[in-house]
TrEMBL record, chain A:
InterPro entries given in the database record: Bact_Polyamine_Transport (IPR051789), MetI-like (IPR000515), MetI-like_sf (IPR035906)
Pfam families linked to this entry: BPD_transp_1
Annotated protein name in UniProt: Spermidine/putrescine transport system permease protein PotC
Classification of source organism: Bacteria, Pseudomonadati, Pseudomonadota, Alphaproteobacteria, Rhodobacterales
Purpose: Required for the activity of the bacterial periplasmic transport system of putrescine and spermidine.
Top-level division of the source organism's lineage: Bacteria
SUPFAM superfamilies: MetI-like
Swiss-Prot/TrEMBL keywords: Cell inner membrane, Cell membrane, Membrane, Transmembrane, Transmembrane helix, Transport
Cellular location(s): Cell inner membrane; Cell membrane
Membrane topology value: Multi-pass membrane protein
All copies of domain ABC transmembrane type-1, residue ranges: 68-257
TM stretches of this protein: 12-35, 72-94, 106-131, 137-160, 181-204, 239-260
Automatic annotation (TrEMBL), chain B:
Gene: potA
Top-level taxonomic group: Bacteria
Domain ABC transporter positions: 5-235
Protein name from the UniProt record: Spermidine/putrescine import ATP-binding protein PotA
Catalytic activity: ATP + H2O + polyamine-[polyamine-binding protein]Side 1 = ADP + phosphate + polyamineSide 2 + [polyamine-binding protein]Side 1
Role this protein plays: Part of the ABC transporter complex PotABCD involved in spermidine/putrescine import. Responsible for energy coupling to the transport system.
Family statement: Belongs to the ABC transporter superfamily. Spermidine/putrescine importer (TC 3.A.1.11.1) family.
Any one GO molecular function term: ATP binding
Presence of the UniProt keyword Iron-sulfur in the record: no
Subunit structure: The complex is composed of two ATP-binding proteins (PotA), two transmembrane proteins (PotB and PotC) and a solute-binding protein (PotD).
Length: 268, 352
């Protein structure tokens, strides 16, 4: 007798539905109400884009614009630097042979994934205060680079692990220097992992709230902290619009990362 | 005249494991030389050390008299055909073939022309713009060959390049490789565990086992006058019998077969006592009773071109005999008694 598929377990459908609703109902509500014409966040007043215009031109627009610019530049810089470091780390971990403390290094690289974010946030703040580093743009950037590294590392290392060492050997054998073999052969082969890691790091940096909120200092805002500041004074529909926009950007990047990874897996 | 390659007392250790133990051998210019042995014998390690992918723990590797043992792989004028080809998947066939020329700093027209010639040589001109993944295994193999030959290396290293191909293609490629070696005049060092491949293509073969070179010689030497039990057993099929040595004089020995029959054979050892004797199955012939040894037929196995006859000597020692499956061949019946003839000198006494 064939094993029963999980689909035929009792109340499979209702449990699946419950999970989906818990996960996605709040998001759907926010997305739908971002198109609400009414200034109330609970009453439906017809379809409109007024809150989207409000985000870009309303009273809070300058604040959001400055915060968005900070978020974007920090995300680009943090993702770029974290990706470079993660690529170097992956090469050291997977191409340098066995070395003493390899497992320890692996744990250290991935530790930020396991440590509670609030602990990192507090520790980072205390660290910056102790060394007398003025909080602001730079502290946010440094903190973001740090926690982005493991996110960039994972897809890059996964990709590199699947690349046979004979490609680099072949390049060296055909008179390529170490650097040429990296830039002309290994990096193009790693590219799907590197791009995927970059996008992941970018989105993680863009979305971060807890650590940023601790290390940002006075007067400095990123988009998530600006939204939080605005919400503290009461939830207005423009918050729903801006949240929906951020959700759109996140989905776009995660999808891109997924597609690039999948395309990479099809070629060797 | 310089040898193409001189391996001098090369040792390779990984931690506590010794992969190669003080190996010395010389490979002549324009030679098709094969490193043959079972997996783990150190043949690939030796090839990778010549290419520069593995450090030499001890010893020297000379390429036309120049010590290359510590040079980076890109500074050694040798090229490799890899077991899995290792074609760059993101480059077209022609870019793959031209890669080495580009790294050597040749200008675009020169390298395009040379890469084109190479592709013509391996009959793949019409595939120049394809990606490696769009080619069959056999075609990829040819591209790998063209890529490795394009920079005109002094020595070409081939790491079991035929093992990924199916049987028919493998046999065709053997002839093609041999022809290519003769046409280009480049020294080929070929690594394989397939003794048939080694016998059909090589000028000389080094049989390796457990990090040692067991014997170096022409295919005929290796097959007909193996120096020890390992070589006799590894190359081809053979009957290995434990025999008592009656007398040894020069390269001839008198031995007593199990069952009491005395024969004269060539010998690789000069120590009296008990040794192994190798008798190739095709060197035994079935003859009418009365002359020479006698045996009982156990079984006759049909192999197409040949028949394999399993017999037992008086005293119970089993032997296999190969006879041609010709029209006039009389197939012996299992259970019958037959005579066995062994040409003088066709058996070989082995060192252990």
């Amino acid at each position: 007798m064939a094993l029963r598929s999980v689909r035929h377990y009792p109340s499979f459908f209702s449990i699946a539905m419950l999970c989906l609703i818990i996960l996605y109902a709040p998001l759907i509500v926010v997305m739908v109400y971002s198109f609400n014409d009414s200034p109330s966040i609970t009453n439906w007043g017809g379809l409109s884009l007024r809150w989207y215009f409000d985000v870009f031109t309303g009273p809070e627009a300058p604040r959001f614009r400055a915060a968005a610019w900070n978020s974007l530049t920090i995300a680009v810089l943090a993702a770029t630097i974290a990706t470079a470091i993660a690529t170097a780390a992956a090469l050291a971990m997977l191409r340098a042979g066995k070395f003493k403390g390899r497992s320890l290094t692996f744990a250290l690289i991935n530790l930020p994934l396991m440590v509670p974010e609030i602990v990192i946030a507090v520790a980072t703040l205390i660290f910056f205060t102790m060394i007398g580093f003025t909080t602001g743009y730079l502290t946010i950037l440094i903190a973001h680079i740090t926690f982005c590294i493991p996110f960039a590392y994972l897809p890059i290392a996964a990709r590199l692990q699947g690349i046979d060492g004979s490609y680099e050997a072949a390049a060296r054998d055909l008179y390529a220097t170490r650097a040429q073999s990296f830039w002309l052969v290994l990096l193009p082969l790693m590219a799907p992992g590197v791009i995927s890691g970059y996008l992941l790091a970018f989105i993680i940096s863009l979305d971060d709230f807890i650590i940023t909120n601790f290390v940002k200092g006075a007067g400095m805002e990123t988009l998530p902290t600006a939204i939080f500041g605005s919400v503290k004074q009461g939830i207005k529909p423009n918050i729903m619009a801006i949240s929906t926009l951020m959700l759109g950007v996140s989905i776009l990047f995660v999808t891109l990362s997924y597609l690039i990874n999948r395309k990479g897996r099809q070629s060797p | 005249m310089n040898n193409a390659i001189d391996i001098r007392m090369v040792t390779k250790t990984y931690g506590t494991v010794t992969a190669l133990k003080a190996v010395s051998l010389s490979i002549m210019d324009n030679e098709f030389f094969t490193l043959l042995g079972p997996s783990g014998c150190g043949k690939t390690t030796l090839l990778r050390m010549i290419a520069g992918f593995e450090d030499v723990t001890q010893g020297d590797i000379l390429l036309f008299g120049q010590n290359i043992a510590t040079l980076d792989p890109n500074l050694r004028p040798v090229n490799t055909v890899f077991q899995q080809y290792a074609l760059f998947p993101h480059m077209s066939v022609i870019d793959n073939v031209a890669f080495g020329l580009k790294m050597k700093g040749l200008d675009l027209p020169t390298r395009t022309a040379r890469a084109g010639e190479m592709l013509e040589m391996v009959h793949l001109s019409s595939f120049a713009d394809r990606l490696p993944a769009q080619l069959s295994g056999g075609q990829q193999q040819r591209v790998a060959l063209a890529r490795a030959l394009a920079p005109q290396p002094k020595v070409l290293l081939l790491d079991e390049p035929l093992s990924a191909l199916d049987l028919k293609l493998r046999q065709a490629m053997r002839m093609e490789l041999k022809q290519l070696q003769q046409d280009t005049g480049i020294t080929f060092i070929f690594v394989t565990h397939d003794q048939e491949e080694a016998l059909t293509m090589s000028n000389r073969i080094a049989v390796m086992s457990a990090g040692h070179v067991q014997q170096i010689g022409t295919p005929r030497d290796i097959y007909e006058t193996p120096v020890n039990r390992f070589v006799a057993d590894f190359i081809g099929e053979t009957n290995l019998l434990e025999v008592d040595v009656a007398s040894i004089a020069g390269d001839r020995a008198q031995v007593i077969l199990p069952g009491g029959h005395a024969i004269t054979c060539s010998t690789a050892t000069h120590d009296a006592g008990r040794h192994h004797l190798s008798i190739r199955p095709e060197r035994l012939t079935l003859v009418p009773l009365g002359a020479g040894m006698e045996a009982v037929v156990d079984q006759v196995i049909y192999l197409g071109t040949d028949l394999q006859v399993l017999v037992r000597l008086d005293g119970g020692t089993p032997l296999q005999v190969r006879i041609q499956n010709a029209a006039r061949t009389q197939v012996p019946a299992p259970g019958s008694r037959i005579g066995l003839h062994l040409e003088e000198g066709a058996a070989r006494l082995l060192a252990d």
